[in-house]
Amino acid sequence: FDPRHYLGTHCYGFPKTGPHRLKFLLESVKDLRETLKKKGSTLVVRKGKPEDVVCDLITQLGSVSAVAFHEEVREI
């Protein structure tokens, strides 16, 4: 979870993620984790800036051959 997604917008200060959306996201992540566990896998969840968290996770795992990501579309 990137903390920047829970701050106010740059124009008017409205929250980017309100309480209902946050609840939905948390429930979705919980459901995904439970589904993966049933299939013998797991889900790694971290809080922080992705550019820092992913780097730390790669270092911890040690044998990462590829990383895939997407860039969020930013409004001007």
UniProtKB/TrEMBL annotation:
<dbReference type="GO" id="GO:0003904">
    <property type="term" value="F:deoxyribodipyrimidine photo-lyase activity"/>
</dbReference>
<dbReference type="GO" id="GO:0071949">
    <property type="term" value="F:FAD binding"/>
</dbReference>
<dbReference type="Pfam" id="PF00875">
    <property type="entry name" value="DNA_photolyase"/>
</dbReference>
<dbReference type="InterPro" id="IPR014729">
    <property type="entry name" value="Rossmann-like_a/b/a_fold"/>
</dbReference>
<dbReference type="GO" id="GO:0000719">
    <property type="term" value="P:photoreactive repair"/>
</dbReference>
<protein>
    <submittedName>
        <fullName>CRYD protein</fullName>
    </submittedName>
</protein>
<dbReference type="InterPro" id="IPR036155">
    <property type="entry name" value="Crypto/Photolyase_N_sf"/>
</dbReference>
<keyword id="KW-0157">Chromophore</keyword>
<feature type="domain" description="Photolyase/cryptochrome alpha/beta">
    <location>
        <begin position="1"/>
        <end position="76"/>
    </location>
</feature>
<dbReference type="GO" id="GO:0003684">
    <property type="term" value="F:damaged DNA binding"/>
</dbReference>
<dbReference type="InterPro" id="IPR006050">
    <property type="entry name" value="DNA_photolyase_N"/>
</dbReference>
<dbReference type="InterPro" id="IPR002081">
    <property type="entry name" value="Cryptochrome/DNA_photolyase_1"/>
</dbReference>
